[in-house]
Amino acid sequence: MAAIVSCSLNRAFQSTTRRCLDAHFKSCNVARESRLTISSSHRPAARPVVRWFTGVRFMSHGTAGRTAAGPTRRTALALGGAAVVTGAAAAVGLLVNTGHFQRAEMATRVSLDAVKPQEEGDILERCRGFMSDPVSDIKELQGRKDEMRTRMEMLIMQTQAEFCKALEEVDGGTFKVDRWARKEGGGGVSCVMQDGKVFEKAGVNVSVVFGNLTEEAAKQMRSRGKVLKGKDGKLPFCAMGVSSVIHPKNPHIPTVHFNYRYFEIEEEDGSKLWWFGGGTDLTPVYVNEEDAFHFHNTLKEACDKHHSQYYKDFKKWCDKYFYIRHRGETRGIGGIFFDDLDSPNQEEAFNFVKSCTRTVVPCYLPIVYKHLNDSFTDEEKNWQQIRRGRYVEFNLVYDRGVKFGLATPGSRIESILMSLPLTGRWEYMHEPTKGSREAEMLKVLRDPKEWV
């Protein structure tokens, strides 16, 4: 009898989740032309179909990131502390079974060939699906469409659009699209939604900046082992990325963060030193093993498509990076994290980062839908505010991206500090009651678990 009941519940949950996610996927095809700034002569009747796919390429370690006039340089790439990150996500569906999320085919898989026109096709056609025009001029992008700078800018604009549309569907609100320019070179597109029905503050930012590195910024990179050889004391650079932090109202829906970025520095001999960075991590207010398993298992499945060791090492790196040393606890339950990815070659590194962006929606949105209507108490909301305070502490004291942004002339402070929650709380000498769910959460943060 228990098996029959369990099977019935599984089918019911699967059916409910399928309806929610099917509605989400269908919404991604709806045109929102009013928010595009592309000239009306280039506007189509509707946006392109958004697809999540599972095709990836295997990567191994090898040559480091140097291109153009300079020689190719080889580096030792330590998995335990210097390099790569996640892969592509499988289908988005969920199936409850034995207390865990299980992967299920709820969205039609499509081949790499079917997706390629959207991913690497016509620049103008792809721009029509973005939240805004790209930061760089479209004609400029078309003129250098095969360069990594162009391909990465198109990828981060696409990632921003797909995630924003997924969040708008579940919230019912609309992102404010805010373009900004940097007088020293470049600019960005900030998409922010505040005081929504589901999200108290949701931000998905794209930035593409260039110019010369300041000595402070160069010092930070040298401290990570970068050998930078400038010309006449100058280090021309280009940096771009997509970054998002989502702070829900309901304390049972976790905060999520992801960031994927690309750096390129021109040295005195004209060669280019390049690398990628990024990752995705989850910060819940309460321990929920089903959510943790789903989130980490989605990332692990993606990593395993590239290398069986990646998830283990990048999960460990994530726990180490998102650690609040003065509190003796991690910021959340982690995920995956990498920096300075410059091997085995630029094409493989980009393909790997491209597959990373495919995990963003499937690892988070099912968790949001699951807890959408959960009730909560004042005490639970208060604990959420205290945990948000810890989030602020990490971002302002330790986060490398925030520190780099604040050290870069012409940076847009509003976009850098977008990651901070709308509200937070700091209580003097707060300690949760022994045996409480709050104490259980704190125990996990002080001693990170293996969720998969």
TrEMBL record:
SUPFAM superfamilies: Coproporphyrinogen III oxidase. Gene3D superfamilies: Coproporphyrinogen III oxidase, aerobic. The keyword Transmembrane helix applies. InterPro entries: Coprogen_oxidase_aer (IPR001260), Coprogen_oxidase_aer_sf (IPR036406), Coprogen_oxidase_CS (IPR018375). The keyword Transmembrane helix applies. It catalyses: coproporphyrinogen III + O2 + 2 H(+) = protoporphyrinogen IX + 2 CO2 + 2 H2O. GO terms for cellular component: cytoplasm. GO terms for molecular function: coproporphyrinogen oxidase activity. GO terms for biological process: protoporphyrinogen IX biosynthetic process. Its EC number is 1.3.3.3. Belongs to the aerobic coproporphyrinogen-III oxidase family. Homodimer. This is Oxygen-dependent coproporphyrinogen-III oxidase, mitochondrial.
